């Protein structure tokens, strides 16, 4: 199996050095390029084959959110994990809207960051639990009073609806599998079918869907 090719974007050289040591210590991934800001990243990534980009939010010249947005317009765009020091609403929402497949804090444990790179590379999406909570709080004030049925939700089976609810609540595949006494492979199959039926991109979009349609309500 080919290595996961990782590209680093951060305006602090020391941070890039730390990430390089971490990524290159893994047998299944390697750093293939680096950039100190979003503009440089766009230039280099267009001539550097990479699978996953670790993207800082706050950078000079071009920030991580706008760089992510522009990257998504490229043919065969890499998956982007946005990293930030602060778990601020506007960054999380903007990054997700721009097409990021992940949003994590820089103080995320190394093992969790490496796991996130693998998950995003496999097509999943990753958002830190604290960001998910804030995402849900953000939508709480604009949610419908009654459940809003969408035609594509009507196509979901009872089990798919149950899985969607738990995804929206922030549970991982492992936790959902344990809850319903299923294998993780079966949970992934259900999520794949939900994405296909709803036409959504990834797990993050399913979280938003669950709350926008009222399938899940924020806890008070």
TrEMBL record:
GO terms for biological process: phosphorelay signal transduction system; regulation of DNA-templated transcription. Gene3D superfamilies: 3.40.50.2300. The modification 4-aspartylphosphate is found at residue 56. InterPro entries: CheY-like_superfamily, NreC/VraR/RcsB-like_REC, Sig_transdc_resp-reg_C-effctor, Sig_transdc_resp-reg_receiver, Tscrpt_reg_LuxR_C, WalR-like. PROSITE patterns: HTH_LUXR_1, HTH_LUXR_2, RESPONSE_REGULATORY. One of its GO terms (molecular function) is DNA binding. Keywords: DNA-binding, Phosphoprotein, Transcription, Transcription regulation. Residues 5-121 form the Response regulatory domain. Residues 149-214 form the HTH luxR-type domain. This is Response regulator transcription factor. The lineage of its organism: Bacteria, Bacillati, Actinomycetota, Actinomycetes, Propionibacteriales.
């Amino acid at each position: 199996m080919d290595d996961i090719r990782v590209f680093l974007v951060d305006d602090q050289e020391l941070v890039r050095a730390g990430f390089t040591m971490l990524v290159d210590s893994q047998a299944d991934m390697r750093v293939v390029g680096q950039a100190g800001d979003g503009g440089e990243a766009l230039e280099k990534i267009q001539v550097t084959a990479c699978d996953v980009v670790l993207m800082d939010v706050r950078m000079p010249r071009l920030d991580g959110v706008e760089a992510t947005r522009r990257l998504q317009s490229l043919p065969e765009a890499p998956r982007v994990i946005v990293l930030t020091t602060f778990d601020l609403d506007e960054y999380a929402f903007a990054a997700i809207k721009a097409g990021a497949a992940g949003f994590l804090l820089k103080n995320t444990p190394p093992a969790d960051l490496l796991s996130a790179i693998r998950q995003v590379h496999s097509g999943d999406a990753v958002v830190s639990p604290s960001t998910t909570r804030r995402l849900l709080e953000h939508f709480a004030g604009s949610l419908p009073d009654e459940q809003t049925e969408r035609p594509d939700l009507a196509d979901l089976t009872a089990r798919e609806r149950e899985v969607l609810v738990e995804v929206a609540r922030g549970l991982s595949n492992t936790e959902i599998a344990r809850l319903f006494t299923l294998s993780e492979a079966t949970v992934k199959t259900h999520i794949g079918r939900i994405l296909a039926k709803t036409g959504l991109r990834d797990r993050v979009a399913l979280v938003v869907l669950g709350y926008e349609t009222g399938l899940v309500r924020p806890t008070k």
